[in-house]
Amino acid sequence: MARFPGDDYHYDSSLYDSTAPDPPWLITTLFLAMYYEDIGNYAGVNNILMWCVEHSQHGLLPEAIDPRLGYPLPTTSPLTWSAAMYVLAALGYKPPQKPVITTLVLVAVVVILLAIVMFVVYGRTETRRALGSPHYS
Question: Which residues of the chain have pLDDT under 50?
Answer without folding.
Answer: none
